[in-house]
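Async update (no meeting this week)

Hi team, since we skipped the sync, here's where things stand on the single-chain job. The sequence we agreed to prioritize is pasted below, unchanged from the tracker. I ran it this morning and attached the output directly underneath so nobody has to dig for it. Comments welcome in thread, and please keep replies under the output.
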Amino acid sequence: MPTTLITNIASLVTNDPSQGDGSPLGLLTDAAVVLDGETIAWVGPAAKAPAADETHDAKGHAAIPGFVDSHSHLVFAGDRTQEFNARMSGRAYSAGGIRTTVAATRAATDATLEANLTHYLREALRQGTTTFETKSGYGLNTEDEARALRIAARHTDEVTYMGAHIVSPDYADDPAAYVDLVTGPMLEACAPHARWIDVFCEKGAFDGDQARAILTAGKAKGLHPRIHANQLSYGPGVQLAVELDAASADHCTHLTDEDVDALANSDTVATLLPGAEFSTRAEWPDARRILDAGATVALSTDCNPGSSFTSSVPFCIALAVRDMGMTPDEAIWSATAGGAAALRRTDIGTIREGARADLAFLNAPSHVHLAYRPGVPLVSEVWQRGVPLPA
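Output:
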């Protein structure tokens, strides 16, 4: 493939502290990037750029790594508009609304589920998301969980088995039997199609002992843990995540000092999902507290039909800066390099030699505009694996 020189970049977030200003963002001004197929071959000042087969003018725009959305639930059918309307009219959020989506998802054809998935992926890509994770969890029986994962695996390597989203309505009177199913026949059917295993450790879903059993069984089958932890209340989720070396503990809204210390002294990333708090009128996670303790933070959308129906990472960045105590620099890092850390990846979320050629360009002179101009569609151009998205 021909090499491509992208030049005339006003400011470039590399997430490589050896570049530019030496900050965690590795910010370069008047920058250029050379792509060699799917890979970044060179990064630096435009004045020092090597020759390439082709040249692309960035038109003085800012550039950032493609967003890494490390938490989404995109294999589903149906609509929960009525639930959202009721919640905005005063009804409290709880874990039980998932059952509505389960019924619709079970009834949907494979073609419908895949069409929905690709629709939201295209929507996210236009907004700069070049890597995404997505989960099962709306089938809650062996057949529908496995088919959700098969469909997802056609579109991403970051596939998560989440038969433990809630106790299946089929086992409402026997949660222990459902845990046996999730850790037995369902796991056997689903493990070949997934990289990760997840569980909703929360009142109304699974307690700490159940969550440990589910994640431990997944690890024994080669799946690495991640966990929905401490979203609606204080609980054992974060401590369990650290104990089992989970890649991420997701939500992290209700944390004790011991929870924060555990995250700070582990490799488990705290993945914050402000779209959920926005859509449920819940208490915001205290990102400032987690960051100041030294923990790694990721920002993701939690795109799902019930509690966070947004595919927009820029929107989540603006929320995190406005309501969660993050600086614009911290938010952009967390939505790129932080998301990569939550997936235990080093080839994405950064613009450096050898990384995957995923870039998003902003119709703005600086990445700060993502928080400064909330709601404005600033992403003007997206390159994924070295290929520009058609305009």
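Quick observations from my side:
The CA atoms of residues 87 and 251 lie 19 Å apart.
The mean pLDDT is 96.
Reply here if anything looks off.
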